[in-house]
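Re: the request from the purification team.
They wanted to know what the chain is likely to look like in 3D before they choose a buffer screen. I agreed to run a prediction and write the result into the notebook, where they can find it.
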Amino acid sequence: MITNEQREKLRGWFAGRLPDDLFEELTEITVDREEITVIGRIPAPRLTGDAPATEQEAALEGRVQEFRERTREDRMAVARDAEHRFGRKVSWGVECGGRRTLFTHVAAPVMTRLRQPERQVLDTLIAGGVARSRSDALAWCVRLVQRHTDDWLAELRESLEHVQRVRAQGPDSEPDPAPQAGEE
């Protein structure tokens, strides 16, 4: 969990470090303990207004693939600098024509202990074809909770940032220097 100020510094660093012509716009930077994900907008392919949906999909896919290949070296250089500076892996994605595509991302293992009723839920998702494994089923459950509780999670994150600020002002923090004689 990082504070808003840390998030702003991170976004500022990437905005300053990315080549000017890499993205039309730097749309989103997300961060957790393992990974920083950088997403930018790239121009959509130009098609006629009456292009069939399959042609539009193929054009978007081609544009994203072309961008990924063309910018690989630049993105890798930025990622190396960021990984050294921030101690996290960097993943990349783009928004193009209203569609978001992630190129790479970290699949971090999560240790958990589930009792039989929780395992049965996961196994039901597997049996129903929703997931291939318990790991996939658990990820599906997390995405479902995330989708239905975004407001609550945002409020919880804000509360955690407040706790971090208060904790930083605790007795172990550096005290403000005492005013010198004649100062107030």
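For the purification team: The chain has six helices and four strands.
Please add any questions underneath this entry.
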